[in-house]
Amino acid sequence: MRNQIRRRGTRRNPIRRRDTVSEIPDELLLTILSFLPSKDVVATSAISKRWKSLWKEVKTFRYDDSYPLTFNMFALFIRSRSSVDILQLKLNPGFSRTNINPLVKDAVARSLRELRIEMLYISFELPQCLYFYPQLETLILQKLSLVDIPSNVSLIGVKKLHILSVRFSSDESVIKLLSICPLLEDLVVRRSLYTNVMIFTIDVPTLKNLCIYNSWKSRPEGVHGFVVNAPSLRCFNIKDSFSNYLRFGNMPELVKASVNIVCDQPEDILGSLASTRHLSLCLQSPYLHLATSFLFLDHLELFSCPSQWCNLLKDAPILRVLKLYQKHSQSNDVTYSWNQPISVPECLMSHLESFEWRQWHRPRERSCKVHPKKCELSKEGVVLLKICKET
């Protein structure tokens, strides 16, 4: 009887399941589809009437050799499209320039704006159709061996360039590639064991954003590192625990910097960062006996703080936010011991509004946030800050 009542109740009051997918606007669906391989994008046409033609509006096309879609079929598919904004290719070592160049040429003819090529460490030469093509704004090269750039060419429209584990014929080849990008503003460099460049020179007067990642598992022999000359740089991010040669030029326009490096002589590095307003610093160096002026510094984060961390604050007159981390959250660096400062930096007495100290050596207390007005300051150095743990 109870089962009959349940069945009748189900018939009289059917549960209406909400179709949330149908409520998603086309713009969002197109964004989601842009992250899928083109093979899967086309397959969505079988979902419903709405999806039957929706995939045709996608302008980001991806080819991954791990999928069964053949390269020739993909090339024909690109040729049938009226517009190609983004083309991403992940190819195995069996491909050659004769396969790639016609495809890229067809994409260029359809207003290509972004090109990404990953070729699993095989020789690759930039297609001729990319040179002097003004609409290409983003070029991403990953895991390939780049053939030397010919003379008298230019990537006149490229503003974003990613060089990810790329092999060059020489150090000068890097300089040549960057020199043919007259409008370059954003550069990402990732070095790995495969990268054969010893001194990676970045001399780009138009550069505004620079990210450097050095992921070698061990230090190679010889002199290796980076030379950066980018006077227009506004945002700088470097994570490099392996280079033994780092030279940074003056960065007068710098606004934000995140620096995580091993450095025996930090004076030159910090001098280049003097104009920044927001600084996140992890200097794996036991020495900071210097007097760098940070006249514009508003926000400072220190990781793996050396015992002389107070030296950084001697000339930071407008510092408002100070955060100390006893060791970097992404490394196993040696934790430096605390040395009581001889004097209290003036910025801590006047402008500091927020102070945070994480991973400090107190049992059961790993972090704290304090307001300077709740702390006791001593100019005699007996107590720098009386830590008041907030609940």
Main β-sheet description: 14 strands, mixed
Q: Pick out the low-confidence regions.
A: 329-335, 362-368, 373-391
Report helical residue fraction. 10-25%
The radius of gyration computed from the alpha-carbon positions, rounded to a whole number of angstroms, is 28 Å
Would you count the extended β strands for me?
A: 19
Largest beta sheet: strand ordering = 1-2-3-5-7-8-10-12-14-15-16-17-18-19
* SSE-based structural type: alpha/beta
Estimate the strand proportion: 15-25%
What count of helical segments does DSSP give? 9
Shape designation: globular
- Mean pLDDT comes to 78
Distance between the termini: 58 Å
Order of helices and strands: HHHHEHEHEEEEEHEEEEEEEHEEEHEE
Topology:
Blueprint lengths: L1 H11 L13 H8 L4 H6 L5 H6 L5 E5 L6 H10 L5 E5 L6 H12 L5 E5 L4 E2 L13 E5 L2 E2 L13 E5 L6 H9 L6 E6 L7 E5 L5 E6 L10 E5 L5 E6 L4 E4 L7 E7 L3 H7 L5 E7 L14 E5 L17 E5 L20 H5 L3 E5 L8 E4 L21
Parallel strand pairs: 1-2, 2-3, 3-5, 4-6, 5-7, 7-8, 8-10, 9-11, 10-12, 11-13, 12-14, 14-15, 15-16, 16-17, 17-18
Antiparallel strand pairs: 18-19
Helix pairs in contact: 5-6
Organism: Brassica oleracea var. oleracea
Pfam family, one: FBD
Protein name: F-box domain-containing protein
Q: Your description of this structure?
A:
The chain has helices at 2-12, 26-33, 38-43, 49-54, 71-80, 97-108, 171-179, 266-272, 346-350, and strands spanning 60-64, 86-90, 114-118, 123-124, 138-142, 145-146, 160-164, 186-191, 199-203, 209-214, 225-229, 235-240, 245-248, 256-262, 278-284, 299-303, 321-325, 354-358, 367-370. It is an alpha/beta fold. The protein has a domain at 254-391. Strands 1-2-3-5-7-8-10-12-14-15-16-17-18-19 form a 14-stranded mixed sheet, covered by helices on one side. The protein has a 3-stranded parallel sheet with strand order 9-11-13. Strand 2 (86-90), helix 6 (97-108) and strand 3 (114-118) form a beta-alpha-beta unit. 24% of the residues are buried.
